[in-house]
Specification:
Blueprint lengths: L5 H22 L7 E5 L5 H9 L4 E4 L2 H8 L6 E4 L8 H7 L2 E5 L3 H12 L4 E7 L13 H9 L4 E8 L11 H15 L7 E3 L6 H6 L4 E4 L1 H4 L6
Parallel strand pairs: 1-2, 1-8, 2-3, 3-4, 4-5, 5-6, 6-7
């Protein structure tokens, strides 16, 4: 158990919700269009239960081991896999996650799709886009083709796009990347109109992401505090 307290976490959540609401007001958006995904890497189940009880329905995890352990202790949540998809753990992702945010066509994703279909599941799936050309994800020029491929896979339901922008000196530096992802989504939706979701923005830049159209923001540190070493 870390030294984080329920009162502090819930105060942080209130502040994040206020930030989302203010960003939506600036962008003339409905705050109901934005879901907070509580990023729970290294966070104890008790703290996740606090935010779920406070109305956060979406929990994000980077590691299948943590999803497996926490699902048994935290109920009434939608579990997002937000880590790097790997072939040797893909079958666990197919079993445990409700939303896959880091999809990249390849053998690992093929395995998730096959295992999900065998289990009669359809996992909402976001294609990860690498706007830096240096990280995991699909290159921008390949996004439409990748989304078409995901939409055709049994066991998966194409839901939209996700990205992680490069580190910038301030939140405003991420704005061009968020705008680019929004533009890519519009191109994808010409062929796949169901691909509405934009997962972008984290603790340091989520308000800018919301202004640029994010429908999901993945927030860990601003909600739970600085993580201890894993």
């Amino acid at each position: 158990m870390s030294d984080r307290s329920r009162d502090v976490v819930l105060a942080n959540l209130a502040s994040i919700r206020e930030g989302v609401a203010m960003a939506c007001d600036r962008a003339d958006r409905d705050p109901a269009q934005v879901r907070i995904v509580a990023a729970g890497k290294t966070v104890e189940p008790e703290a996740l239960r606090w935010v779920v009880a406070a109305g956060v329905a979406d929990l994000g995890e980077n590691y299948v081991q943590e999803i497996r352990a926490k699902r048994a202790e935290v109920h009434d949540a939608t579990w997002h896999f937000i880590g790097t998809l790997q072939r040797h753990t893909a079958h666990h992702v197919a079993e445990l996650c409700d939303v896959l945010q880091s999809a990249v066509p390849g053998r690992a994703l093929d395995r998730v799709a096959r295992r999900a279909a065998e289990a009669g599941r359809r996992i909402r799936t976001l294609v990860e886009v690498d706007l830096t050309h240096e990280r995991a994800g699909v290159a921008p020029e390949d996004v439409v083709r990748a989304c078409d491929a995901v939409a055709a896979m049994p066991g998966l339901e194409l839901a939209g796009l996700m990205t992680l922008p490069p580190l910038t000196p301030d939140a405003e530096g991420a704005r061009p990347y968020f705008a680019e992802l929004r533009e890519l989504r519009e191109r994808v939706r010409e062929r796949q109109p169901q691909a509405w979701e934009l997962s972008m923005g984290m603790s340091l830049d989520y308000t800018v992401a919301v202004e640029e159209g994010a429908t999901m923001v993945r927030i860990g540190t601003a909600l739970f505090g600085v993580r201890p070493p894993r």
